[in-house]
Structure formats: C-alpha cells, structure tokens
Amino acid sequence: MSKIYAVGDIQGCAPSLKALVKKLPKKSNMIFLGDLVNRGPNSLAALRQLKSLQESGRAECILGNHDLHLLAIDAGVRKTKGLDTVDPILKAPDRKELIDWVRNRPMALSNGKVLTVHAGVLPQWDLQQTLECAQEVERALRGKSYKQFLANMYGNTPNKWSNSLKGYERLRVITNALTRMRFCTPSGQMEFESKEGLGNGPKGYIPWFKAPKRKTANTLIYFGHWSTLGLLRRNNVIGLDTGCVWGGKLTALEIANSNKDSKSLEIIQVDGYDHPLKM
Quick one: 226 exposed, middle or buried, by C-beta within 10 A (0-12, 13-18, 19+)? Predict the structure, then answer.
C-alpha cells in the first residue's frame, strides 16, 4: 500500500515543491494542506505542478486562505496586496483552467480516522459535521454564483458557531474556521489578528486544538497555516506549516492510520525560499 504524506504550506515556492516531490517515494501520494500559492517566488509554476500532480492521481490539495484570496482577486471582488505574487496566474494563458481547478478543490479531507484541514476545527464540530460544513463551502465555490459567495466571504463576524446560522453568515464562519483560525476561546469564539506561538495568544484565548471540549479530540488532525508554531506533533494534532516562504522548510509527514501510530512517522523536509522579508 502506498504511503500518503501531508505537506505544509507551499505559498508559491515552486523550487521547494519540486525538490520535495523528488525526495518522496515514487509511488507515494500527497495531500497538500492549503496556501498553495502567494507570497513565494513562483505561484504560477507551483499551481501548475500541483494541478498536474492532482490530475495524475498522486495528490489532492486542500484550500487555504491565500488560495481563496486568489479566487476573490480573479472574481474581481478583491484587490492584490503588496506582498502578493499571484499576478502571473492572472496573466497566464491557462488562467481559466487554473482558477476552475482551484475552485473544485476540497476544504477538508478524511479517511474516517484522520482529518486534514488548512487552519483549524471549531470545538463544537465532530468529524462528520466538520466534513459536512466543508462541503457546504465547496458547493458554494463550485456553483454558478460562486462570485457572489466570494464577495460575501470576508469579515470577522459572526465569530462563533451556531447550528442556526444560515446563508453567507454560516458560510463565512465555516470558511474562517477552516482557513483562518488560530486562537479561540474555550467555547469557540474565534480571534483572527494574532499570529504568535502557542503561549502568546490574546487574554482569554487558547489555540483552537486546546479547547477543552473539542469534539474532534479523538481524531488525528493534520493542519497548516500557523508558521510560528513550526513543526508541531502532539497526540491528536500535527502542524506542518514550517515557514517555507519565510526561509524555513517545506515539510511532508507521513499520514498515520490513527493517533496510536503517529509517533514514528517519516518526516521529509527541503529548504524553503530565502525571502527578502523573512522573519
């Protein structure tokens, strides 16, 4: 049976992606944990390679906040920012094919025992509800009126889950949890400004995976998004954003079958991008 590796945030670091794929076993498969593009030196080449890997059956790619940012810019509902590196994608002859491919990527994946997401999972969600909520956003992205969803996607409110949420407010909370969340209160109220490490969150807030009554506590979760954590390995969570775009590493970690066999997993790393603004 082929090994499957979860891979942290690439953010357009095409040389690191190419080097990592070369180091992985030839028959292995990959799940990329989002932030496929942006900030790195060659988002276009990275996106083309990821699309090729997915279409060949070797990989799947989860969407992160930078990937949604690309879709919003393409849709004309968001403007590029100073550090963005997505313009070559928007000027590429295969722009439409690339954008359509991004729109059709999942927001979360699971084999029933292990869950992969970009950022985090709200404490009120069990595994099944997490996947169902992810599918709600996927349907919005893949529908004919996806640009309307993108136009209503941004915002920090509501900042807490309720099963009674409807419409764009519901989709916004789901999107923010899956692609932006780092800290929340024990009851799941999200905070979006802080990007520091585990012990440096705002008063009253904790890392999302430390929520005391989190319903996915017995599910092994692989996630990215949080580069200041570095490589994080705990009993039930594995963080793989090791700051590739900021001069760190691009990290792949073998996906376990359960929490029990997650201690001896194979790690493969390559050098990241020597960013001129690296931290």
Answer: buried
